[in-house]
């Protein structure tokens, strides 16, 4: 009877340790999940801010201003337009091979 009680006591202690370990692991995983979700929210917020900045940088007025100031470009007018004509070579008649 004593042996059975010791075996049962060992089983209860082992299951108690296992329970404490699983609760600890569960808390650790929940904390990691919470941190990951917070980081995902932060990255999503930064992504939205960058998208807004990108749209602000790409407005047509700003692009035109940068093109005229930094690249010294000017609007196209007929007076400064140069037209280039491409002459395509005329196809020649196929020659017959000599025998």
Q: What is this structure's SSE topology?
A:
Elements: H1 2-57, H2 60-69
Can you walk through the features of this model?
- The protein is an all-alpha fold and 99 residues long.
- The protein is built from 2 helices and no strands.
- It has helices at residues 2-57, 60-69.
- The longest helix has 56 residues, at 2-57.
- The protein starts with a helix and ends in a 30-residue tail after the last helix.
- The mean pLDDT is 90.
Give the total of beta strands: 0
SS summary, helix count: 2
| Sequence stretches where pLDDT stays below 50 over 5 or more residues | none
How much helical structure, as a percent, in the residues? 55-70%
Overall mean pLDDT = 90
Largest sheet: none
Could you spell the SSE succession in H and E letters? HH
Sum up the overall morphology in one term.
Answer: elongated
Search tags:
single chain, 99 residues, mainly alpha, 2 helices, 67% helix, 0% strand, elongated
In short:
By secondary structure, the chain is mainly α. It is built from 2 helices and no strands.
């Amino acid at each position: 009877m004593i042996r059975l009680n010791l075996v049962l006591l060992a089983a209860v202690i082992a299951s108690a340790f296992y329970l404490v370990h699983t609760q600890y692991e569960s808390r650790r995983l929940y904390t990691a999940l919470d941190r990951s979700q917070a980081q995902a929210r932060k990255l999503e917020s930064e992504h939205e801010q960058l998208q807004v900045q990108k749209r602000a940088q790409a407005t047509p007025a700003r692009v035109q201003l940068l093109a005229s100031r930094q690249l010294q470009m000017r609007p196209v007018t007929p007076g400064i337009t140069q037209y280039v004509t491409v002459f395509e070579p005329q196809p020649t008649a196929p020659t017959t091979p000599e025998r």
